[in-house]
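Checklist before submission:
- one chain only
- standard amino acids only
- sequence pasted in full

Submission:
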Amino acid sequence: MTRIVIVGAGPTGLYLAIALAHRSHKVTVIDRDPGPHADGSWRRRGVMQFHHPHFFRAQVVEALQAEMPQAYEDLQAAGAQPVHTVDGLVGLRSRRSTFEQILRGTAHREPGITLRTGHAQQVLADRGRVTGLRIDGARIDADLVINASGRAGRLGRELRHPPQTSDCGFTYLSRQYQLHPGAGPAPMNAPFGHHDGYPGYHAIVFLHDNGVFSTTIARPSADPTLAGLRFPPAFDAATHAIPALAAWTDPHRAHPISPVMTGGRLTNSYQGQLDDHDHVGLPGLLHVGDTVCTTNPVVGRGVTTSLMQARQLLQLFDIHGGDPDRRNSATVALAFDDWCTKNIRPWFDDQTNVDTHQIRRWAGHDINLTQPMPSDLIVAVAQTEPALAATIGPYLAMRALPDSLDSLQRRANEIYSSGWRPSVPHGPTHEELRYIADAAAERPRHTLITSRAAPSRPR
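Returned file contents:
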């Protein structure tokens, strides 16, 4: 029986803990957060994105069905909604809090798993391999340590080549609402809810479980003119003015159940398993999930890429067996790093490219026709040539890597060179939205603009 310590009790850490316990390993999961309170409330300390919008892609559902089908059934019993189209399963509508509560409950009931509250301070080693972990000054012996501590985790970072990072260039604000009894969702244009892109900002709705949904306004981080949206009167005025958000947040349809929450300092990042010499830094220490890759959360790939990694790691454990000797641990780390380079790294590169071009366009620049098109612009050309969806669809579903769009580069360039540009939905311009936010912040709450149409552009 292998003694495994997993640092991080988020979706990746809990998923791996349950799956490894099923394989008869003894697993201890360490996290600073003690878990939900008795009344079900849960702040989830240190996890900024916990109460922000989520949509779980089909790969997440498949991961649950493969290793813990009862947890998937429990999620549905808790109100999570599978989304199906004529092409099959698309994903799962659920709050992150609902998702994690079900996984945590599954882990609590699983023999062979110990959940422990504490701070992982240092990986312990002897003769070139892991021997345990220091937690709040105490030692836990381990044959294998899995670092699933998330995007802010620093455990063992000095044993790896420094991460590659890029600023997403976005800050987003979100607020949760609940539909009134008997009220149905407003119009949707995506499986997760609704998405409208405007020059200078995005307006998005994510439908969750039990009639709960989140509205999101994403803006450039470098643009301070919409910063006032973090105040509830300004955010409310903005949702009233943006048609899609107004339809969802109509007081006759729904009511807010959270404050306005800000998500900032967002980065795309990638860091493999190896050190500066392309060697395994410490056999017996593996990094997985957001400690390997993070991407712009607006696109919703985070939990997907993390559980894809977790499934691959389990497959490698199954191939190489449970023997934790130094050679076997290094073999798994090398194989896992190679797989991530081929299957996870491309999503980091893709999103970095998309964000760079998006911010440039939001700053007022036109599309650069002398360079390869970023993937979001290739996706947009399906508006004018629906036949391209046969190639674009697998990419959007993450069934095909970003380079699957390379065959459409020439046609996309021809379309944009003709002068065509993606349509912009009805709603306030960036300048109008700034004016709405500023006006709301200066007026008493009872005088806020309540019109569902955007006001005239200020003169």
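Reviewer check: Confidence is low (pLDDT under 50) at residues 444-459.
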